[in-house]
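Need residues for this backbone.
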């Protein structure tokens, strides 16, 4: 790698000769690790020019350090930091070497930022903790061709400042997709592209909420969304979730007690339980929001992956009162690393969010957004979604089967009608924290259901993602889960059931 030109500061008003100041400054930077062994130093002419000193001064400074063993010259030309530095030889006092940034800030940090990160699992662990897509199948060649085409054809406009709402072609493509697959009457004017749906949640929260506002959230839900909502200073109130999603009757009694500014929900495949909110609850919810002028933030993070039964439309598709803000993402369809999400809202909300985005981030990555728009326009994305839906459905069935075979009555699983994970109920006597810990030791990563509980209390269930792994990997993951369970409870009656049924 070519080096940047190293900067030193000399002070002509000091009595110390400039060549000594130079050699001392370089020696300091070598000892502080700012100049690494083997680094090539600028030529004497170049350095003299940039420092405004005579070349002979640079040569004298370099010569001093060569004599002491800090620098060396090579036959092919050039002066380098020596690979083996002289032990201890220095004129720079140790206390004047500043080799690290300050260990702690010299100012108060303020209140802690709420965190919602999933822990990293060690390499080699089969991770079933996440409902993530299988990025090995992502149409990367198509995307890189689209990127190259976009830059070649529209580079000049794409590399400048652009529309903070997102590239117009991507907004139009998303609107068309939403209209045809979800009966959502969106247009390029009511779609706003973000860097992932997490940013959409943050922008919506900051545009509409503040301290003193009350927001209802699912009592078993998505900690990432709670973190974004909490940052506004709003108070979150959990609402119970049952086998059919959020309990709308409980929500109705909550709204009678105190004004609700917003409700954050995942109605399509409830996160984490995957249940689908029935039609009657949906209608009641929309009516409730209309009557109380409450915002519904509908997070439809994995809409594309519905396998059984009739398609279910988002709340936003039936919203005539303008109470729903719809949030979607390409993180599950393509890859989370691409950071493309979107929101759909009435134009006045879009205008507010546009101002907020300009103050935060100015705009998205236009070249990237334009390339992704091409994937929509060329049909690559439609084909990819169809292929992945079929594949994920088989993986869902494979994991259900493998869990039943390996884990017997320790967990109760039913195939989810849609989504990217199973919500597996467990025997209340099982210590899920310990099982998850032993799981990592046995090479499988999963999280206890408690992680999704608003109050952090015990939840006798696991959310097991099936989409990122091949069927044989899912089989292996289930077998490792059983091995971990055996290590925890060697004589468990659950596992006797499992061995009989396998
Ligand atoms: C329910 C839910 N909403 C939103 C997100 C955020 O996704 P992204 O910001 O990658 O679009 C996730 C990610 O896992 C999720 O599970």
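Answer:
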């Amino acid at each position: 790698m070519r080096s940047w030109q190293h900067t030193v500061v000399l002070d002509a008003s000091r009595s110390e000769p400039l060549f000594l100041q130079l050699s001392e400054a370089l020696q300091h930077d070598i000892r502080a690790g700012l100049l690494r062994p083997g680094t090539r130093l600028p030529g004497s002419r170049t350095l003299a020019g940039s420092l405004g000193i005579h070349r002979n001064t640079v040569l004298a400074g370099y010569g001093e350090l060569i004599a002491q063993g800090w620098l060396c010259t090579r036959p092919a030309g050039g002066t380098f930091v020596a690979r083996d530095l002289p032990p201890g030889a220095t004129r720079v006092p140790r206390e004047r070497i500043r080799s690290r940034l300050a260990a702690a800030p010299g100012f108060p940090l303020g209140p802690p930022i709420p965190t919602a990160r999933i822990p990293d699992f060690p390499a080699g662990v089969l991770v079933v903790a996440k409902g993530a897509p299988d990025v090995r199948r992502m149409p990367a060649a198509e995307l890189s061709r689209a990127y190259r085409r976009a830059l070649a054809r529209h580079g000049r406009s794409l590399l400048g400042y652009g529309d903070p709402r997102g590239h117009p072609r991507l907004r139009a493509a998303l609107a068309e997709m939403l209209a045809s697959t979800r009966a959502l009457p969106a247009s390029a004017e009511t779609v706003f592209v973000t860097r992932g749906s997490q940013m959409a949640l943050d922008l919506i929260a900051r545009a509409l909420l503040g301290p003193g506002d009350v927001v209802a959230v699912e009592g078993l839900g998505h900690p990432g969304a709670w973190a974004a909502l909490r940052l506004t200073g709003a108070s979150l109130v959990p609402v119970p979730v049952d086998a059919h999603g959020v309990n709308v009757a409980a929500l109705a009694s909550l709204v009678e007690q105190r004004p609700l500014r917003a409700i954050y929900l995942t109605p399509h495949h409830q996160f984490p339980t995957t249940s689908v909110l029935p039609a009657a609850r949906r209608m009641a919810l929309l009516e409730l929001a209309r009557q109380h002028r409450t915002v519904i933030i509908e997070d439809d993070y994995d809409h594309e992956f519905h396998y059984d039964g009739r398609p279910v439309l988002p709340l936003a598709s039936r919203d005539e009162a303008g109470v729903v803000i719809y949030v979607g993402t390409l993180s599950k369809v393509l890859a989370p690393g691409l950071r493309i999400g979107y929101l759909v809202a009435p134009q006045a909300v879009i205008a507010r969010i546009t101002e907020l985005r300009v103050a935060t981030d100015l705009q998205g990555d236009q070249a990237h957004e334009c390339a992704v728009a091409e994937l929509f326009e060329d049909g690559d994305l439609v084909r990819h979604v169809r292929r992945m839906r079929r594949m994920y459905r088989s993986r869902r069935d494979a994991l259900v089967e493998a869990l039943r075979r390996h884990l017997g009555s320790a967990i109760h699983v039913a195939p989810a009608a849609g989504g990217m994970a199973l919500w597996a109920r467990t025997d209340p006597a099982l210590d899920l924290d310990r099982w998850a810990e032993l799981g990592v030791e046995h090479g499988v990563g999963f999280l206890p259901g408690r992680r999704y509980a608003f109050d952090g209390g015990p939840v006798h269930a696991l959310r097991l993602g099936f989409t990122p792994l091949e069927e044989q990997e899912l089989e292996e993951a289930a077998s490792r889960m059983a091995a971990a369970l055996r290590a925890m409870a060697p004589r468990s009656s659950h596992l006797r059931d499992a061995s009989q049924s396998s």
